[in-house]
Amino acid sequence: MKISIVTINYNDVSGLERTIKSVQNQSLSLKDHIIIDGGSNDGSKEFIEKHKSCFSYWISEPDNGVYDAMNKGIEKAHGDYLLFLNSGDHFKDDHSLSKLAAVIDESDPVELIYGNIEVVADRTWIKKYPAIVHLDYLIKDSLPHPATLIRKDCFNNQLYDTSLDIVADWKFFLLGIGKQSFKYTYVDETISVFYYDGISSQQHAKTRKEREKVIQQYFSNKLKLHYSYYPSHLKKNYTLAKKKMNSLIKRIKNKLING
Asked: Domain range spanning residue 11?
């Protein structure tokens, strides 16, 4: 049972070096590593060429965004399972892959095997995931692609939706579990370290808009639940409603006083 690790990179040579070293140090031998570089000009390509013997496949060329790059990696992967560990992120320790691989049942393989991640931002914390993933949970959150094995067969009929700039991986998990009944297994271990500085981490408004579009298309009855996940959106609506109510009360008072 082989695992393919796909790493995408664009102009992050220092992060790429950290990620590659982490993969090379994994104790699991049944793995290969695929590098998809978006035509970097910061020395990433030269670094990849210098270490090309470590990779089963690599390419450096312009792409049409994160998910186009990830799809390129999927098409070149030959593992039974894939894990996306993008440039800058890394495994928690040298046995992270082994912890996930240990629960693979070749006689009854599940589509997803996932663990927890350590999140590094203005503070560092462990994000733990539920053992039972309900649709309502996925409407509000997602599974961690740096800590999730995805069976290659899951991509036979679909790749990541490149019309989405930020949430195509979330859409994949949402539809996989919510529509296609993917089977999954949870491993209560911290698998990877994720640095909260990527596109989806920073563009909250666009993330919300893309998620709403997907939910409206596939789970329109859940759209209200999606709104409840964004306190800032609710606060804006509440403030507007309060303003209108105060204005109405003021007008009624004026009418009562002035006749």
From this structure: 3-200
pLDDT tens digits, 171-222: 999 999 999 999 999 999 999 999 987 555 557 788 889 999 999 999 999 8
Which of 187, 191, 189, 7 lies closest to 104 in space, CA to CA?
Answer: 187
pTM of the predicted model as reported, rounded to 2 decimal places: 0.85
Residue from 179, 137, 144 nearest 158 by CA: 179
Does some domain include residue 40? yes
Dist CA 12 CA 37 (whole Å): 10
- CATH of residue 189's domain is 3.90.550.10
Q: Where are the alpha helices (DSSP H) in 25-65?
A: 44-50
Centre a 10 Å sphere on the Cβ of residue 123 and count the other Cβ atoms it contains: 7
Phi, psi of 4, rounded to the nearest 5 degrees:
-100, 130
Amino acid residing at 48:
I
User: What are the angstrom distances between the C-alpha of 175 and each of 158, 179, 249?
Assistant: 11, 5, 46
